[in-house]
Specification:
This protein is mainly beta. 6% of the residues lie in helices and 57% in strands. Its main location: membrane. This is Outer membrane protein transport protein.
């Protein structure tokens, strides 16, 4: 029983690191229009499709921005009718990018983003405390890139992705009256992206892009157990003085396919649409290799824990619009629908996920070479019936979330 309990706890924690949700907050202007991608006015296009750099009007473009993301999850046990709410801090995703065209048909650039990550904090004594009390996830993408204009109406671009990641997770181990912390601050991985950007007509932009999966490799992860009695540590092969063990794991972040288009209905009014396809099915299994603790399920090596996964590929549909009230002031609106990558019977409290409708909007101001954009979004996650038999977690989960952002751009020449 001790072995099963600890194994389930460790699995749940690292699952959340690997299968955490994608944060669609990489451009303030884009968020205002449902986070659509076929916009090549400045360097913010670099993250979405490096090929778009070839169509930026200026030779040099610099952008930066940040967001506030507030969300709350409520879980209700339908047998006891007891409800529990999270007390999550405001998330602060950020981004920055630069694009430069040294010669007519060649552009180079760099993008920094935080596309995966969150912090969720449940009460320390809630009924799911053995799954999670607090979980903090962070990821950082560094992408150098290049774009080549193949013809006046089409370009190709590619990027290299270097990713860094952090996880810090607390949970209770009530059978022994203790707690467990899973922590790794040096996980890293690499990937790539490429795309084509088309402008067959001055009124139409088409963006086709692919971003590869990134395997985040945790080589020096630390699992720290805290129990009131030191006699428990030897049962798990741990040093009683520290209660720690090391683990390694490969934690995949998902691939993404995107098709986007923008059409100028009139010189002042444009409409944009995107389709995203996320490759969550990569999570067929998750393997953790502990240095000493015999908490695994592999015959012949009890320190290796392998768990099957049941994630599915998911889709996102986006529609946005922009209207130029003057040459300096722009109004923007959008809406999108984002599918959850798992079903009700695989719901996990560490990274709650819902089928979600999102409404967005914002305004932009252009002052010669400078641009200022503000945006906001309100999410309407659909309540779901939780039936996770593997974790013994049943009830109803609801959520609410909103986002706001400020972005700056500078196109000097």
């Amino acid at each position: 029983m001790k072995k099963i309990l600890v194994s389930t706890a460790l699995l749940a924690g690292v699952l959340s690191y690997a299968g955490g949700f994608r944060v669609s907050l990489q451009g303030v202007k884009q968020l205002a229009m449902a986070h659509t991608s076929a916009h090549a006015e400045d360097a913010s296009v670099a993250f979405f499709n490096p090929a778009g750099m070839s169509f930026i009007p200026s030779k040099l473009s610099i952008v930066a921005g940040g967001f506030g993301a507030s969300n709350k999850v409520t879980f209700q046990n339908l047998n006891t009718l007891q409800s529990t709410e999270t007390d999550n801090p405001i998330g602060t995703p950020i981004y920055a990018a630069v694009a430069y065209r040294p010669i007519e048909n060649l552009s180079i650039g760099f993008s920094f983003t935080t596309p995966f990550g969150s912090t969720i904090q449940w009460p320390s004594d809630w009924e799911g405390k053995e799954m999670v009390q607090k979980l903090e996830l962070k990821s950082f993408y560094f992408q150098p890139m290049v774009s080549v204009k193949l013809a006046p109406w089409v370009s190709f671009g590619a990027s290299y992705i270097y990713a860094k990641g952090k996880v810090n997770w607390d949970k209770a181990v009530t059978q022994f009256g203790g707690e467990l912390n899973i922590k790794d601050e040096k996980a890293s991985g690499s990937g790539y992206g490429f795309g084509f950007y088309f402008r067959p007509d001055p009124k139409l932009d088409i963006s086709i892009a692919y971003r590869s999966p990134v395997d985040m490799k945790a080589k020096k992860g630390t699992a720290t157990f805290q129990f009131p009695s030191a006699s428990i540590y030897p049962l798990l092969g741990l040093d009683p003085s520290t209660g720690q063990d090391k683990f390694t794991a490969t934690l995949p972040l998902v691939e993404e396919y995107t098709i986007g288009l923008t059409y100028k209905v009139t010189p002042k009014w444009l409409v944009s649409a995107d389709f995203n396809y996320h490759g969550w099915e990569r999570y067929s299994k998750l393997t953790l290799d502990f240095a000493n603790a015999p908490v695994g399920n592999t015959p012949g090596d009890p320190t290796i824990l392998v768990a099957p996964k049941n994630f599915k590929n998911s889709k996102t549909f986006r529609l946005g619009t922009q209207y130029a009230f003057t040459d300096m002031i722009f109004g923007r609106l959008g809406a999108y629908y984002d599918e959850s990558p798992y079903s009700d019977d695989h719901f996990i409290a560490e990274t709650p996920s819902f089928n979600t409708y999102v409404i967005t909007g914002g305004v932009g101001f252009k002052l010669k070479q400078f641009g200022v954009d503000v945006a906001g979004g309100y999410a309407l996650p659909q309540a779901r019936d939780v039936r996770n038999a593997a974790l013994g977690f049943n009830g109803q989960a609801k959520a609410q979330a909103f986002y706001f952002g400020l972005g700056l751009s500078y196109n000097p020449f």
